[in-house]
Amino acid sequence: MSSFKSPISLATSGDGGGDRVGLSHRASGEVHVIVGPMFAGKTTALLRRVKAESNSGRSVAMIKSSKDTRYAINSVVTHDGTKFPCWALPNLMSFRQKFGADAYDKLDVIGIDEAQFFDDLYDFCCKAADLDGKTIVIAGLDGDYLRRSFGSVLDIIPIADSITKLTARCELCGKRAFFTLRKTGETKTELIGGSDVYMPVCRQHYVNGQVVVVAVQNVLKPCSKIQSDSHMEEVAVV
Ligand SMILES: [Zn+2]
Q1: 212 CA distance to ligand 1 centroid (A)?
Q2: How many angstroms separate the CA atoms of 38 and 75, rounded?
Q3: How many other CB atoms are found less than 10 A from the CB of residue 27?
Q4: Is 117 buried (19+), middle (13-18) or exposed (0-12) by CB count in 10 A?
Q5: Residue 48 gets which letter from DSSP?
Q6: Among the options 30, 53, 114, 171, which is catalytic?
Q7: Residue 137 has pLDDT above 50, yes or no
Q8: What spans are recorded as compositionally biased (Polar residues) (predicted)?
Q9: Is residue 1 a part of any domain in this protein?
């Protein structure tokens, strides 16, 4: 007649667990979320934040999805060539083990890029921020090319300290762009691509998407013109 099993077992006595969590002496964790369409500078913002933390003496690590391997596997890269070493992983729960338990314990800040690809985002953030006292900074797409919720990025809003929605610039009119338009008629579920496949658009041009896709195909042909200044991020849209 004991069992009141909490799903989260804190440092109780019993099975020799000892100090598994040690909540008392840890700093409180934080969760910060950066969302927006493709080419909005999410990765740049994430890197800036993580670097600032590093510069102020905190121990940092960066994680990205191993799904997108078009660019450097072990670094996060922005369009302006800024690089940061990272762990490319299929899921987040494997991070602690891969990184090493001792090293993980000393870690203050964890950056996560392409967060829409991680199915275990919510569980990881809960554990890392609530129990382990980490500051988590997440960058990801809030919506896919059909403006549907993407992965579990929106699921972490309720556990976030702050949410920042960045905008890009509409490639057709220059206004602020909130959405990602797929330029091609491709409808398969997962399509990884950069500015050859996707572009940021304002609401009006998103709504007129079909017309736009045709127009762009005519102007663009295989993609040379519109590649100038919008390579902020290369991530996939489902
Ligand atoms: Zn527009």
Answers
A1: 10
A2: 19
A3: 9
A4: buried
A5: H
A6: 114
A7: yes
A8: 1-12
A9: no
Phi then psi dihedrals of residue 158, to 5 deg: -65, -20
Give the Å distance between the CA of 166 and the centre of ligand 1. Answer: 16
Kindly state the tokens that stand for 109.
């800040």
List the CATH number of the domain containing 134. Answer: 3.40.50.300
Q: What is the pLDDT of residues 46-69, one digit of tens each?
A: 999 999 999 999 999 999 998 876
Say whether 53 is catalytic. no
Q: In angstroms, what is the span from residue 202 Cα to ligand 1's centroid?
A: 4
DSSP structural state of residue 175: S
CA 238/CA 152 separation, integer angstroms: 13
- 209-224 pLDDT tens trace: 856 566 666 665 555 4
Q: How far apart are CA 67 and CA 47, in angstroms?
A: 20
The total of structural domains in the chain comes to: 1
**CB-CB neighbours of 81 under 10 Å:** 6
Determine the Cα–Cα distance for residues 124 and 130; give it in Å rounded to an integer.
10
Question: 84: Cβ–Cβ under 8 A, 6 or more apart, which residues?
Answer: 47, 50, 51, 62, 75, 76
3-state secondary structure of 40: coil
CA of 170 to the centre of ligand 1 (A): 5
Q: Is residue 45 part of a domain?
A: yes
Listed in sequence order, the residues at least 6 apart from 88 whose beta carbon sits closer than 8 Å to its beta carbon are: 63, 64, 65, 66, 69, 73, 74
pTM check: above 0.70? yes
In a domain, 215, yes or no: no
Domain hosting residue 97, numbered range: 30-166
What is the 3-state composition of the chain as percent helix, strand, coil, each rounded to the nearest 5? 30, 25, 50
Give the Å distance between the CA of 172 and the centre of ligand 1. Answer: 5
